[in-house]
Amino acid sequence: MTHLEKLRSDPRTVDELINTILAVTDEDILWNAIAVLHVRGSAGVLDRARELCRSMCQRERSLGATILAQLGCPERTFPKECVDAILGLIEVETEPEVLHDAFVALGHQSDPRAIAAAGRFDSHPDPEVRYALVFSLLGYSEAVAVELLIGLSQDEDSDVRDWAAFGLGTQIDLDTPEIREALAARLDDSDEYTRGEALIGLARRKDARAVPFIEFAWSSEEIGDKAREAAELLGISVNTFTSLECLDPPHSPHISN
After folding, report:
1. Count of beta carbons in the 10 Å neighbourhood of residue 85
2. What letter would DSSP give residue 156?
3. Position 31 in a domain
4. b/e 205-238 (16+ beta carbons within 10 angstroms → b)
5. Is residue 169, in this structure, part of any structural domain at all?
6. Residues 152 and 257 grouped into a single domain
7. Are residues 11 and 98 located together in one domain of the fold?
8. What is the pLDDT along the chain (257 residues), one digit of tens a residue?
9. Which of 79, 6, 5, 15 is nearest to 41 (CA)?
């Protein structure tokens, strides 16, 4: 029996599964029960998840959003109803942990209504909320979504900057001067992962500003995998850099193809 078949054959009722999730601390048991609800994806699960989103209990509201995130997985059920409920939760929610889970849930959907919801929270004081907000925006090329990601690529939190650079550089194919400038500004970011995502994003767009950073990364063995990938994207042989001595860190050059 496959894992999916085991989940589908689970005999527990919806209420039994929800009670298990709320009662246990073991992550494996908890996520197994959530996976059963996701796979079941029935109208009954939808109704209980919506009820949880209206609960006075913070943990129950978070659970409601988490269930709605991937209802019916791998074949989604009630997508519009799920997004409606998540957006309704976001409209009135104040707890950062619940907002985080709600925006993560939106990120698992493919509904551009997430963009407008995200626009209200891009300056939220909790970095975990802003991080989840970035996740909810991945893959959208709409101007508002891109503008939000550009702003979040300058966030004070490194994880937020990293994912925003990933969203701009890799998750969309749109190529604009604004996107290039936002990525170039992150080439000398204090966070190595953000630098790597910016490097890949510029290389995908054949922007020459990536080249000196590839050279430096290669010579210093910093973010080597990203440097190798960027070099390949630009059609530069890795042999070009194998004999380089360690260079001084470059500053973002303001030239492009």
Report:
1. 26
2. S
3. yes
4. bebebbbbbbbbbbbbebbeebbbbbbebbebee
5. yes
6. yes
7. yes
8. 899 999 999 999 999 999 999 999 999 999 999 999 999 999 999 999 999 999 999 999 999 999 999 999 999 999 999 999 999 999 999 999 999 999 999 999 999 999 999 999 999 999 999 999 999 999 999 999 999 999 999 999 999 999 999 999 999 999 999 999 999 999 999 999 999 999 999 999 999 999 988 888 776 655 578 888 998 999 887 666 554 444 445 655 443 33
9. 79
Provide the domain count of the chain.
2
Q: Are residues 144 and 246 in the same domain?
A: yes
Are residues 69 and 158 both part of a single domain?
no
- Expressed as residue numbers, the domain containing 167 is 138-257
Distance, in Å, from the CA atom of 122 to the CA atom of 107, rounded to the nearest integer, reads: 15
Question: pTM for the full model?
Answer: 0.90
Whether 75 and 3 map to the same domain: the answer is yes
Which residue is associated with the tokens 């969203």? 167
Q: Examine the domain organization and report whether 84 and 144 are in the same domain.
A: no
Alpha-carbon span 137 to 51, nearest angstrom: 26
CATH number reported for the structural domain that contains residue 170 in this entry: 1.25.10.10
Dist. CA 213–CA 187, nearest whole Å: 7
Choose one of 96, 111, 126: the last residue of a domain. 111
Start-end of H helices in the chain: 3-8, 14-23, 27-40, 43-53, 58-69, 79-92, 96-107, 113-119, 127-137, 143-152, 158-169, 177-184, 192-204, 211-220, 224-233
